[in-house]
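Folding Task

Wanted — backbone structure
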Amino acid sequence: MWYTLLYSWVKLHALLPMRILYGLADLLYLIIYKVVRYRLSVVRRNLSAAFPEKSKPELRKIEREFYHHFADYIVETLKLAHISLEELQERAYVQNPEVVDQLMDAGHPCCLLLMGHYGNWEWYSGSTTRFEEAVMYQIYRPLNNKVVDNLFVHLRTKFGSRVISKYETGREVIRLQREKVRSVVIFLADQTPSRQNLHYWTSFLHQETAILTGAERLARKLNTPVVYLDVQMLRRGYYTLELQLISENPKETSENWITEEYARRMERSILRNPAGWLWTHKRWKYKRTDVITHEHKG
């Protein structure tokens, strides 16, 4: 019953034209930013650390732009309940899908697509169905609230994409590779690793940062090509997606090279337009000293 009520509420808003939804987003921006001040202390701390060279007015400008975009992200995600594939692909336009098609034609049935929480990542799994005969799989973390979790799964799989729980990632990717399923597996690779997975550290936005290495480990084990999804925000509600090949033969790369290359490309995407990244995320809650202390105690 609760799912039906929630989905009905989402569908009702999704029926509205985008110009009306963006009007609602302008109101939502004021509520989230000015009234609720949603994670404002986290955003300010992250921005100050990431851009030590910027003045306070410059940081506040990025902050306001971020919250405007965050409100847009919310209404755009609601719109998934009532949007055509054609409109979605126009708004989240893949410039060069042939990069993936050529990899598969060259004998790689499966490839890994690395991206981040940038722009509107909820739109991309649907828009990237432009790949020829390839099934999209998105790795995701199941939510504790099953009603909301079911809603997001429904929205993400509306156009034929599928989801894989993060807890089943290895087994499922190995299966896709073994069965030669023509598939693209999406990793939101800018998430914070759990404490027990703080294996690789690099400088990212002026801070020592732990980066997830699971995608690289799978890629090198299976020799599955790795592609980066570079997102540019053109204007409100319109994104261009460029596929950038990181490695066609990961087994030939040195350990952590793919992870480092992803970090550098993700950083360039953010620096191009910082407002598009998810600054509310507690990205730097662990420090390298946490690992040292943990190992010493162990």
Summary: The chain has a mean pLDDT of 92. Residues 56-79 form the longest helix (24 residues). The chain has one domain: 2-297. Residues 2-297 form one domain.
